[in-house]
Amino acid sequence: MRASRWQSFNPLWNTLQNFQGEMNRLFDRYNEPFDGPAAFPPVNVWEEDDHLFVEAELPGLDKDGLEVYVRGGNQLSLKGVRKAPAAPKKGLWHRQERGHGAFERVLTLPYPVDADKVDARFEHGVLTLKLAKHESARPRKIPVTGE
To answer: Is the pLDDT confidence value at 35 over 60?
Structure first.
């Protein structure tokens, strides 16, 4: 009798894992409201210590035309209106890629934040938010008792 090595299901398992990864990427794309071809404003989100930072590019806006809301503890909403560019008086548009009009971008934050402890700065067309983690989202050291 010839001994044969048992073939595992690794090729099938790898294929299923790749499929799951692709499905996760597909649904992650639709986790936020659809804002057209590209979400506006583009944002960077990062975490340091007990704070979450959000940076949004908002060229051409002024701080008076911008609204920032924290809802439900972990929802951040950026609203505003970009003015339409002035039409050329004697020229002809060849390309117009910069959008205009009202926008709202809603981000689901990775944890709840304290809406009363938000620092918002708007300089050179960039909005920078510093949001403090809510007390419930901060790690707590648990005392261990026993021998």
So the answer is: no
